[in-house]
Amino acid sequence: MRIARFSHNDVPQYAFVQTDKSDGKDYLVALEGHPLAGAGVKPTGERFPVDGDGIRLLSPVIPSKVYGLAKNYEAHAQFMHEAGHSDIKHAPEDMVIFSKPST
User: Which of 22, 38, 47, 103 is 20 to 30 A from 80 (CA-CA)?
Assistant: First the structure.
């Protein structure tokens, strides 16, 4: 079984991916519910071609946080300083790692 996360007209949702034997193309069978949460899901009755209008495939899971490196190269550190966003004029010798929760 293949599971996909996609958006249709900017509305994210999950789907089973099924290949139609008559035309050999993949289709998204939209689901009600979250298949990775342990609760049951059921098809909504909507089916979309993977390459259809308004369809965009998304990352299969929603990230819980993002990790980044602060001002990790000289040009970025200088740009942030000149823009008034940082007192630090040069890239730090040791990397500064930060995380940002998904919001």
Answer: 103
